[in-house]
Amino acid sequence: MNEGVMKNSCSKGSPGAVEKQRKRLNQRQKARILLIFSVAFLAVTAILGVVLHDAAMVTDFSRKNIAPCLKYPFGTDWLGRNMFYRTLTGLSMSILIGVLAAGVSAVMALILGICAATLGKKVDSAISFAIDTVMGIPHILLLILISYAMGKGLKGVIAGVALTHWTSLARLIRGEVMQLRESEYIQIAGKLGLGKWEIAKKHIVPHVLPQFIVGLVLLFPHAILHESSITFLGFGLSTEQPAIGVILSESMRYLIMGKWWLAVFPGMMLVLTVVLFEKGGTALRQLLDPGSVHK
Predict the structure, then answer these.
(1) pLDDT computed for residue 23 by the predictor
(2) Domain 21-56+77-294: CATH class, spelled out
(3) DSSP conformational letter for 194
(4) Partners of 76 in beta bridges
(5) Residue 124: which residues within 8 A CB-CB, separation 6 or more?
(6) 97 CB neighbour count, 10 Å cutoff
(7) Which among 88, 54, 59, 89 is positioned nearest to 76, based on CA atoms?
(8) pTM of the predicted model, to two decimals?
(9) Which site among 8, 61, 220, 262 is 20 to 30 Å from 155 CA-CA?
(10) What is d(CA 23, CA 28) in angstroms, rounded to the nearest whole number?
(11) 33: left (phi over 0), alpha (psi -120 to 50) or beta
(12) Number of neighbours of residue 155 by Cβ within 10 angstroms
């Protein structure tokens, strides 16, 4: 008996087990650092964009088309505007649109996903048909149609992005709730007389909340990318607004003249933001998933 206990304690303290545990902890620590860095980048960029908005609009023809240098890290454009300030202002606007559109889209997905799984076959069929229809139309085409129908601009872009990005998360939540509905404690709650909405509020929503939060974060980079895409194509924000899509669209006519910095730096910052938040969403998933500790 004592020999078995000693063997067990030795195996727990073996170098291999300690090393595995250390790797798991390091993986979660890296995920926390990445998530904190992503949130900090989002906050700093959004604040700087608001603070530098007026400076980004200032024109000075004596400094037009200056290549990147110490004074102007991103150079200046054909009107002498500071491209570093304009890029930060454009990213700040994209972040605002991304947060609003992703938030609306994720809430739609949560509500419709739960309704599809709990309100009977007719509701489920109707919502599933809506999901299949939206997913069957190319994202960018549907986005352009919705944005154009709503008069483009900020309202049209947010509505277009929100109404085209909820489907995958709604389908995921529906599947989770369908499985959860068959669990023993949900069946008992129903037999005790709890209504469908009360069961959803007390038992289902807390269960799917981690998936909802991760889905919200992962929707954010897609919202930014699609907003910039339709603005670049001329169906999004107006040209008076210093959005990244507007900056990239205007820069195209100057690339042939060798003014590469007008497109390269805004494009790089947009890609950096998208990739960073894709990684941040993955890190958040690792932190919220209890099983990720054991991977």
Answers:
(1) 60
(2) mainly alpha
(3) -
(4) 82
(5) 116, 117, 174
(6) 24
(7) 59
(8) 0.80
(9) 262
(10) 9
(11) alpha
(12) 11
Positive or negative, the CA dihedral 153, 234, 130, 214 is negative
Is the pLDDT at 177 greater than 70? The verdict is yes
Cα–Cα distance between 227 and 95 in angstroms, integer?
10
Please answer whether residues 34 and 78 qualify as being in contact, where contact means their C-beta atoms are separated by less than 8 angstroms.
Answer: no
CB 197: neighbour CB atoms within 10 A? 12
Report pLDDT digits (tens) over 53-75.
Answer: 888 889 988 899 999 999 999 99
Say which residues have a Cβ less than 8 Å from residue 242's Cβ, sequence separation at least 6. 53, 56, 57, 86, 89, 90, 93
Q: Token pair for residue 79?
A: 């009107």
Residue pLDDT, tens place only, 25-63:
577 788 788 888 888 888 898 899 889 988 888 998 889
- 94: tokens are 């994209």
Give the tokens for residue 99.
């947060």
Tokens 């500790």 correspond to what residue?
Answer: 293
